[in-house]
Specification:
The chain is of the alpha+beta class. The chain has helices at residues 24-39, 128-141, 152-169; strands at residues 44-46, 56-59, 73-83, 87-93, 101-107, 109-115, 121-127. It starts with 23 loop residues before the first helix and ends in a 5-residue tail after the last helix. It binds zinc ion (ZN).
Amino acid sequence: MLKILTAPHPLLRQKAQPVEHITDDIRLILDKMIDLMYQTDGIGLAANQVGILKRMVVIDIGADCPYKDLYPLKMINPSLEAISDNTIIYEEGCLSVPGEREKVKRSEMVSVSYTTPEGELKKIEVSGLLAVCIQHEIDHLNGVLFVDRLSKLKQELTWKHYEKQHKKTKGAPL
Ligand SMILES: [Zn+2]
């Protein structure tokens, strides 16, 4: 059973390693990540978040977009090939930082390459929420959380608020 790790779990701060061989185990993990993402109403999940330091993410933003036929996206070794100078501000949340949402500025468009579970190399250009989500998930693979993208002051306030919420639920039945 996979479980979502929450901050300040140290694995969320580590860099995931490239997947060298796509095995049945890798495909099984991706499927389990998708199940977990749907169960938790997330739109994306990176392997670090379930304690697996491999460069894999799953995404399904649900909205109508040109890549809907690829959903749920299963990306192995995703890599940003190009990012736009144009930016977009979107209020982000994260399954690993439950309860916190903040506006984050990211590139509006990205070109990303990745390998599918079938071993096919793909490159797609996306914009809007899907581009935001891909950048958020690739950040996870590099040990970066969305809170790190905020101003120093906002970071402090967000973590303070998070700790307070966290303490409140400490000792509560899980
Ligand atoms: Zn996240």
